[in-house]
Design a protein that fits this description.
125 residues, alpha+beta, GMP Synthetase, Chain A, domain 3, 3 strands, 18% strand
Length: 125
């Protein structure tokens, strides 16, 4: 499958924004275990939806997202210094909960399997 320009730019932005958040943004509300899990670009490259994964409780996640919103202009400026684009894309940060969703689903599956195993033992199967 051939990659389109939006995917290529999104992948590069993911690396750059992740580096900026980890090494340049100095806000104590951003935990060390914060990562950019993906960037989805609009077809015209004018918007970048950045998916952010934050390790911590709901309060830590909210604080991190607030800090990123506050630092959005700085992140955008730093990103434009590193990536040469005609238009500086507007950044939209979105909390990525896929890891928590996967863990919750795995726990549900394990619980169901355990209940099934107990039922089989009771029935002697």
């Amino acid at each position: 499958m051939r990659r389109n320009r939006a995917q290529t730019v999104g992948d590069e932005m993911q690396k750059v924004i992740s580096d900026i958040i980890q090494n340049r943004v100095k806000d104590p509300r951003i935990p060390i275990l914060t990562s950019v899990t993906g960037v989805k670009m609009s077809p015209d490259l004018s918007y970048a939806k950045c998916f952010i994964s934050v390790y911590g409780d709901d309060e830590a996640k909210k604080g991190c997202m607030d800090a990123l919103e506050h630092a959005k202009g700085f992140i955008r400026t730093e990103m434009c210094k590193r990536i040469n684009l005609r238009v500086a894309p507007q950044l939209v940060f979105s909390l990525d909960t896929s890891l928590e969703d996967a863990a919750r689903m795995e726990a549900f599956i394990n619980k169901t399997l355990e209940e099934d195993r107990k039922k089989r033992e009771e029935l002697g199967i």
